[in-house]
Amino acid sequence: MNIQERLAQYVPVRLKVDLSQLTENEQKIIPLFIKAAQAMDDAFWKQAYGDRDALLALTADPDIKQFIKISYGPWDALQNDEPVIPGVGSYTPCANFYPPDMTEEEFESSAADQPEFNNHYTMIRRDNQGLLVAIPYHQFFREQVQLAADNLKQASELAEEAEQKAYLNLRAEALLTDDYRSSEYAWMDMRNNTLDILIGAMETSMDGLFGYKAAYAATILLKDWYWSKRLSQYIALMPRFQENLPVANIYKSEQPGLDSDLYVYDVIYYAGFDKASNPIGVNWPDDEEVRLHKGTRSLLLKNMMQAKFEKIIAPMANLLIADDQRRFVTFDAFFNYVMFHEIAHGLGITNTITGKGLVKDALKNQFHAIEEGKANVLSLVLINQLVQSGNFSETDLQEYYITFLANLLRNWDSRQACMQLNFFKEMGAFSRDNETKTYRVNLEYMPTAISALAERILHIQGDGDFIGAQTFMDHYTSAVDDLTGDIERFNATTLVRDIVVEQE
Length: 504
Known about the structure:
Blueprint: H1 3-7, E1 10-13, H2 24-48, H3 52-56, H4 62-71, E2 75-76, E3 82-83, H5 104-111, E4 122-126, E5 132-136, H6 137-140, H7 142-158, H8 162-177, H9 181-189, E6 195-203, E7 215-224, H10 225-231, H11 238-243, E8 261-272, H12 273-277, E9 281-284, H13 288-294, E10 297-301, H14 302-320, H15 331-344, H16 359-363, H17 367-388, H18 394-410, H19 415-426, E11 430-433, E12 438-441, H20 446-463, H21 466-476, H22 483-493, E13 498-501
Parallel strand pairs: 1-13, 8-10
Antiparallel strand pairs: 2-3, 4-5, 6-7, 7-8, 9-10, 11-12
Helix pairs in contact: 2-7, 7-8, 8-9, 14-18, 15-17, 15-18, 17-18, 17-19, 17-20
């Protein structure tokens, strides 16, 4: 694949955002937020690869430079991490969080009596003697976090809501200390703000070695009050959702936080890991103590969802979904699926029932795929509950199931999507027509498959069963028969695989 073909995998999108509702002070805050976000982008580059400028200097080709900027490195994530520059070596799951020559055994030996090694906010390096050392983020990224903190503090002076002032000041302090908990409590208390920013070291999925290290990111958001009020009813159902999960009571004994809420937003700006991954929904905070005491906030990023649906999911459905089911792939179903996916992150269990501590820590590098799989399948569990209670119709259910399949096909090369495709196929819930080379949902088998997968995942999480998670994922992440060829057929028709957001 040449560099033009690699670039053609991404469709550029400029997100539409109406800022006219903002006050004069809020308008002034946006440039400060962007400067803070750009500092996170610089820090993320160091985590993802290392020296960005040295990497860009390796080529004079403007197309390769553009691709490197999109990918935050010289590897093509959409093509099995193939390098786009000779001599850069293979991509490693440790990214730049750890020394490239470090073994897992060496890390585990050092971490046995030095808990800071497992901390989400330390970079692992070698000292002059070649021994592993853990360096706190706020020291390693001193310049970047100071710049971000300064801009957040300036923004706090312009903030008109007391709760937003508190959050911005506490978040600035968190960047300088790596202690985020107080700022996340403050963020959950902040409900009347139209403008928002998620910023800091947050998501750990980029650490493919252990799942410990958090990547720097930022997303600047504009709240959609109309849609937020319209959908807020579903958060009140979280205790009922939890109670009716298809698993033994011990695996759903925790109560979702009573202060959980849900808001709809438009994305103004992405940076760092968020720009690399372009999230369409977020469930935050990640801190388990905050989640237990305050709950979580589900954020639905409407303009980004619309872009991904129109540019990727709809075209893929037109080629790969059975003709008689294609009309059931709708944006409304996709939007609601993402909503329930984010709500589902707040369900299930946070602490293992086997004394192994937090689920996230017990499952290590298997946690992200298992957790995303949980949120995906529980979204359908919740939709089934709402159909049974009369909130949704059977027609709605058909739309959700078929749109769910189209979205899995969009993510076919991710571990969690591959796992679900294989599991549902094994249960007879999905099938492929060899003549038309299209996929269909077998509606009669879906409820059983959904309950079976949900129960399996909730057991793995509750037991903190790392070996079980690893075995389960290894078994169900082999290539789906014929799918690789079908995706190649899709790519030959239109190479678009993802979105790249154009922003100033």
